[in-house]
Known about the structure:
By secondary structure, this protein is mostly helical. It has helices at 6-17, 19-30, 36-42, 46-59, 65-75, 79-83, 89-98. Pumilio repeats lie at residues 28-69.
Amino acid sequence: ELSFQKQGSFIVEKLLKTEASRVMVVEELLGCEGDGLLRLARSQFGNFVVSKALRVTQEEVMVRADLFWGLVHKLTPFLNFLRGFQESRNIARFLDSIR
């Protein structure tokens, strides 16, 4: 819920920069039920959190590939929905680039 707010998304992005909290944040994203992650990816501020999570986990793919690929697999079924929204187009482009 914090990621849906302007200041909250900024805080969560900062947490994604540190190794100690990164795993916790990404695991929480992966635990989103139903279309929770899609709603976050399409939201005004949450899309920055999802993009940051994809980037930082991709950089660590040799260490924690499960986090990166978990996000990719959870978002891929929604790729067409992500393309249709201004806020989530950068996420769709990222997913397209790794396919």
